[in-house]
Amino acid sequence: MNDQPSNNDFPDKELADLWKRQETPMANTANPLELAQLTTEIKAHHRKEQVRLLWLNIREIAATVLATAFFAYLAVVEDAGRTLLIFASLMCAGIGVFLGVTSLRQRTLEQQFDETLRGSIEKSLSQAQHRFRMYRSSWLWYFTPLAVSMAILFAVSIYNDPNGAKPSDAIVIVLIAVLLFATYLFNRRIAFKKWKPEIDRFEALLADLDE
Amino acid sequence: MNERKREELFTDWVAEHRGIIVKIARSFTVTPSDTDDLIQEILLRLWASIDQYRGDAKPSTWIYRIALNRALTWQRDTGRRPAQASDDKLQYVAASSNVDDEYQLNRLYDQIRRLPKVDRSLMLLSLDGLSYAEMSAITDLSESNVGARLSRARNTLFAMIEEDNS
């Protein structure tokens, strides 16, 4: 396999021979036709993965785009509380901008790592740390601006309603608050159940490499 | 790189170096189903990385890097199975024409799997006959570090073999 002069002569010749003799087939690489079929499948799978990632990005941004458009629309049609509604709209837009900027920053950071084992583990660690930070602090950058925007919406609606606040408003407010908080807790759970163990795993690998 | 050239390179690489991929996948997984999944993940990563290949390293070095990187960071995702349609296409056939060899190899793979992941990677490269310089280029470890770690890993492996034989 390796025709270069090597300072690595495996000491157990029998073992080395056994290793060299082993058959390493993949069922569908036996002939050019099957290999072409495999390539087509890998290409299709890769395309599917790219579409899935694109869809995830769109889904992340779509909610903030919709919320921004919604508050902007209200700011145009409502007479009272226009400034507050514009502020709410800007906050929702801010979430999208923050998501975009942090993703871009992370992608730039990942380009610095090379393709060696160390570089690859460091890259995976960086990705896991980014995800962990995003999920853990989602209250700060996602739910607080959203909650404030909702509060503004309710305040403006109640102010514009000639009958003032109704008991049903309080119920809706509490329900939304509970929903937002539950979603935040779910995000924190993902951060600590999924991404923290990943960080620990990659750090252990790096420590093993640096040993 | 255009699509046609990319396809040609990919098929050439897989035809010539599939042994690297299979051996690494087998060393980092226990069940045949996981081996198939890891092979598929490595092939996917290989396909995605072809554009980044500048030709400054040998294709085999590049493939070792991609395969080991994926194997080291791969973990069975219990919630998701990759492309079901491909499962019956990507089966690694473990049965060898020589039954005794296959038995010995299974034992050897079991022992290799018991090594720490980085030592395991070096052991695979060593068994494939790569030089310390090549191992250093793949792992980003210094050559002296490669030598020291490999010596320790071999001692551990031989101790395991001896223990299993006794």
Characteristics:
heterodimer, A: 211 residues, mainly alpha, 6 helices, elongated, disordered N terminus, B: 166 residues, Rna Polymerase Sigma Factor, Chain: A, Arc Repressor Mutant, subunit A, 2 domains, 0% strand
Principal-axes geometry of chain B comes out as globular
Under CATH, the topology of the largest domain in chain B can be stated as Rna Polymerase Sigma Factor, Chain: A
Under the CATH scheme, which class of the largest domain in chain B?
Answer: Mainly Alpha
Secondary-structure-derived class of chain B: mainly alpha
Q: What is the number of helical segments of chain A per DSSP (H or I, 4+ residues)?
A: 6
The greatest inter-chain interface is formed by: A-B, 52 and 67 residues
Overview of this structure, please?
The complex is a heterodimer of chains A (211) and B (166). By secondary structure, chain A is mostly helical. Chain A has one domain. Chain A is 81% helix and 0% strand. In chain A, helix 4 packs antiparallel against helix 6 (167-210). Chain B has two domains: 1-94, RNA polymerase sigma factor, region 2, helix turn helix motif (Rna Polymerase Sigma Factor, Chain: A), CATH 1.10.1740; 96-166, Winged helix-like DNA-binding domain superfamily/Winged helix DNA-binding domain (Arc Repressor Mutant, subunit A, Orthogonal Bundle), CATH 1.10.10. Chain B has helices at 3-28, 32-49, 59-73, 99-113, 117-127, 132-139, 143-165. In chain B, helix 5 crosses helix 7. Chain B is globular. The chains are: A mainly alpha (211), B mainly alpha (166). At the A-B interface, helix 1, helix 2, helix 4 and helix 6 of A face helix 1, helix 2, helix 3, helix 4 and helix 5 of B.
